[in-house]
């Protein structure tokens, strides 16, 4: 898949660049889509487990205890390569390991 503008993988809405967000003790770089999906950026793509938990905590409005009780069947998740310079995404793996990653998460039962 070639690079395309940043869009939500769940609803195809175009999204703004990720921004710094602070909720309670959580500090992330990400955003929210109109379909209630949240996205969180891992600039180097090396901490996917950590940013997945951050995305779930963000989805739970900063409540990490609630985030930890979510089961995989409770939410949808999508990980995409992200270029911070061009605000574009791709599903293709960057073989050189130089690209950031965005994790998108949305609850299934809205």
How would you concisely characterize the structure shown here?
The chain has 110 residues and is α+β, with helices and mostly antiparallel strands. It contains two helices and seven strands; from the N terminus they run E-E-E-E-H-H-E-E-E. It has one domain (4-107).
Task: Explain what the structure shows.
The chain is an alpha+beta fold and 110 residues long. A 7-stranded antiparallel β-sheet has the order 1-6-5-7-4-3-2, with helices on one face. The mean pLDDT is 90. The protein is built from 2 helices and 7 strands. It is globular. The protein has one domain (4-107). A hairpin with a 4-residue loop joins β5 and β6. Helices cover 16% and strands 35% of the residues. The N and C termini lie far apart (30 Å).
Instruction: Tell the overall outline.
Output: globular
Helix content: 10-25%
The number of domains: 1
The main pleated sheet reads as:
7 strands, antiparallel
Q: Largest beta sheet: what is the strand line-up? A: 1-6-5-7-4-3-2
Q: List SSEs in N-to-C order.
A: EEEEHHEEE
Radius of gyration: 13 Å
Number of strands: 7
Low-confidence stretches: none
- Share of β-strand residues: 35-45%
Structural class: alpha+beta
What's the number of helices? 2
| Alpha carbon gap, first and last residue | 30 Å
Q: Quick check: average pLDDT?
A: 90
């Amino acid at each position: 898949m070639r690079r395309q503008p940043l869009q939500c993988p769940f609803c195809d809405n175009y999204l703004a660049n990720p921004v710094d967000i602070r909720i309670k003790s959580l500090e992330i770089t990400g955003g929210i889509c109109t379909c209630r999906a949240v996205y969180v950026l891992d600039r180097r793509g090396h901490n996917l487990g950590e940013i997945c938990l951050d995305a779930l905590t963000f989805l739970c409005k900063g409540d990490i205890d609630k985030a930890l009780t979510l089961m995989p069947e409770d939410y949808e998740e999508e990980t995409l390569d992200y270029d911070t310079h061009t605000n574009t995404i791709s599903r293709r793996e960057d073989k050189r390991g130089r690209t950031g990653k965005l994790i998108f998460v949305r609850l299934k039962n809205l």
